[in-house]
Specification:
The chain is 31% helix and 25% strand. The chain is an alpha+beta fold. Bound molecules: biotin. Biotin (BTN) binds next to helix 1, strand 3, strand 6 and strand 7.
Length: 219
Amino acid sequence: MRQRYNIIELDTVDSTNDEAKRKLAGVGHLTVITAKYQTRGRGQRGNEWKSREGENLLFSVVLKYAESSLQMPASSQLALSGMVALSVVDMLESLNVQAKIKWPNDIYVGERKVCGVLIENSVCGKYLSTSIVGVGINVNQTEFDEDIPNPVSIAQCIGRNISTEKVLTLFLNAFEDYLDHFASGEIDYERLCGLYVRRMLPWSAPENFLEKTLSLGKL
Ligand code: BTN
């Protein structure tokens, strides 16, 4: 694991995103809160995120832009979404699992969802001031509640269990690289959109998204 992350490991919490919000004033940029179990895991659109205790990866990364060299215009929130989604896809690829992004940042293997992301931002003027990046990755769970639509885990994809710590390390290293490359300008917004679009399920994009993004030109 890279040294820049500060990892807080919890057994049970309501939601790692909610815990990150409560701790926000007292923690620094790149703090990561993990939990083995969430009692009120939150998904997009007010849905619940259910995950069996200890079987999967549940974590939130705190980004505090004033403490970093990153500047994130509020108008380019897709950049952050994109970096998170691409980091998950890269992590999976390093485990020989081919995955795609369902807009904006669900990660699918074939027609089944392996990871969901809930990003909560606060804005100051034209820029984001903080982001809480909540990520739930199905790692070793093989039986899911019937009301979860089309779930799959990494273990089901690779045919064996894998440590959640390893998956977290692979993700965090990939994510840090994207953040660094974006902060240094090595990957600009257009290039990021290009990388994102290439790994996106085209049918999942909102109307005109592809046209707008493709017109950015650096694919
Ligand atoms: C979704 O696909 O609906 C988004 C799911 C996000 C779940 C993760 S698990 C860790 C973090 N804490 C939460 O309460 N939610 C996110």
